[in-house]
UniProtKB/TrEMBL annotation:
Residues 102-276 form the Vanillate O-demethylase oxygenase-like C-terminal catalytic domain. It comes from the Bacteria. The keyword Oxidoreductase applies. Keywords: Dioxygenase, Oxidoreductase. This is Aromatic ring-hydroxylating dioxygenase subunit alpha. InterPro entries: Cholesterol_7-desaturase (IPR050584), VanA_C_cat (IPR044043). Pfam families: VanA_C. Signal peptide: none annotated. One of its GO terms (molecular function) is dioxygenase activity. It comes from Gluconacetobacter tumulicola.
Amino acid sequence: MTHRVDPTDRAVLDAWHAVGFLETLGAGPTHTRLLGVGLTIQRTADGTVQVRAEGHDAPLPVAERHGCLWTSLGTPPATPLAIPEADEPDRRLVCCGSIDVHASGLRVVENFLDMAHFPFVHTNILGAEPQTEVLRYHTEWRRDVDEIWATDCRFHQPQAALSAEGGQDTGYIYRVASPFVTLLYKTCPNDALRPDVIALFVQPTEPERCRAHPVMFLIDELSAQADLIQFQQKIFLQDRIILENQRPRLLPLDARAEIPTRADSLSVTYRRWLKEKQVRYGATGTLPSS
Ligand SMILES: [Fe+2]
């Protein structure tokens, strides 16, 4: 059974969604799903990419950015999100492979924003006992750009990146640009001033299923591309086990559904933001009961 997106779920419909990595598009058509709708992706003779959706006569809007193909079932902004750091000439674009997850895409974003799980899920990589405390950080809803940001985040990490030699106190900044698009900036072991950038573009295929497209923009001249991808995939597969065991699979937006702690202030703000936007795809409890 498929669940098509509700035509009034505008924040979801009018967003850009990543639907695959450009490097994996072959000569023939590719089939995928977005918000319960079947898509056919095809590169045309002139090199442009066309996306067609079942039930839509006209081709969908497309954009090629950050290593991904983006499309929308509604009326999206002029371009998918800008990541100014991605344009720096010495950054390496690392597309880490698409991963199917049997959980709401909103759950996948929320997990990406959570530091508390590092020592327990990514043990001896992104965290380790006994250093399990999430220190106080700052969360804000930047109304001018309508994004959620968390700053002043710190976590001690045994292996913060493939290129890290020994443990380090890693500074993090989190950014949520749209309901299914998030990224973080973290201390780079190879550059004292500029952070590494790791993005997670989530393609909601069904309310309780999604396809995650992790992309990194790294300052790392030495590591082999395959090793960078493997490092990130190992971490994401650790997350997938946790995500697929969460119940409910949909993200509850009712404030009483799950009891937050101080460490969850980013998650709480993310849920409030989704609720104010009346995001329903992948969520429960968005609309007040009347
Ligand atoms: Fe994780």
